[in-house]
């Protein structure tokens, strides 16, 4: 995937993770995109470990995998950084 596709995937995955996570998050779009891109890496790594697949293109499985990874990162961010 190209850089623009990673940014778009990051934005979609980060926004979905923020929408699914209960509570209020005080982060901007740049941090959301970075969270989503990091989530794509985490989701792709976990997906390849579990045999589900990796983040290799822009399709529904990739968006779900990246969103799960972004959700994990957002949960960790809220617990470790914000200490809620």
Automatic annotation (TrEMBL):
Its membrane topology: Multi-pass membrane protein
Superkingdom, natural source: Bacteria
Main location: membrane
Keyword Cell membrane assigned: yes
InterPro entries registered for this protein in UniProt: Transgly_assoc
Record family assignment: Belongs to the UPF0410 family.
Protein name stated in the entry: Putative membrane protein YeaQ/YmgE (Transglycosylase-associated protein family)
